[in-house]
Amino acid sequence: MPDLDRAVPADAPALTALVHASSAYAGAYASILDGYSVTPEYVAAHHVFLARSPAGPLGFAALAGAELDLLFVADAAQGTGLGARLVARVLDEARALGLPAVRVVAHPPAAGFYERMGARRTGTVPPRPPRVTWERPELMFGL
């Protein structure tokens, strides 16, 4: 299993490619990624952790303020525990920053994963058309 390190702004194009390659956002969920990119500025401004492989990133997660803002794992790395490692790394960073909790607005099929990781459902975020036409579960990790 690869180490997790801090992403740098130059990683942004590879992170964007990983996001767009995700089968989790196929079909009805594809609209949320229309025109989306992880920018170098985003990577510089937030705590972005990356699992690298010689072929490119296997996954990454971002802590933006007190929110787990992004979590993507390459389809080929699903089921390996990498997602759990990335969440744990983000929560460790949040603790080191003195945050009392970390919020997650989840992709609906991922809500169960976050609950298995210890998050508690706190509500639902309404749709935001035109890109997000579905409700999203809101969860919280208490630290």
Give a written overview of the molecule.
It holds the Pfam family Acetyltransf_10. With 143 residues, the chain is of the alpha+beta class. It has a single domain (4-142), classed as Aminopeptidase. The chain has helices at 12-21, 40-45, 82-96, 111-116; strands at 4-6, 47-53, 56-64, 67-73, 101-105, 120-125, 136-142. The strands form 2 sheets. It has a 4-stranded antiparallel beta sheet. A 3-stranded antiparallel beta sheet has the order 5-7-6. The longest helix has 15 residues, at 82-96. The two termini are 26 Å apart.
Summarize, please.
The protein is an alpha+beta fold. The protein has helices at residues 12-21, 40-45, 82-96, 111-116; strands at residues 4-6, 47-53, 56-64, 67-73, 101-105, 120-125, 136-142.
Order of helices and strands: EHHEEEHEHEE
> What is the oligomer described by this structure?
single chain
Task: Trace the largest sheet across and list its strands.
Answer: 1-2-3-4
Q: What would the average pLDDT be, to the nearest integer? A: 95
Q: How much helicity do the residues have?
A: 25-40%
CATH-derived topology: Aminopeptidase
Instruction: List the total number of helices.
Output: 4
Q: What structural class do helix, strand and pairing data support?
A: alpha+beta
User: Which architecture name does CATH use?
Assistant: 3-Layer(aba) Sandwich
Instruction: Report the top-level CATH class.
Output: Alpha Beta
**CATH-assigned homologous superfamily:** Gcn5-related N-acetyltransferase (GNAT)
Overall shape: it is globular
* Strand element count: 7
What is the makeup of the main sheet? Answer: 4 strands, antiparallel
User: What Rg, in angstroms, do the CA atoms define?
Assistant: 14 Å
Enzyme class: transferase
Protein name: GNAT family N-acetyltransferase
Organism: Amycolatopsis rhabdoformis
Keywords: Acyltransferase, Transferase
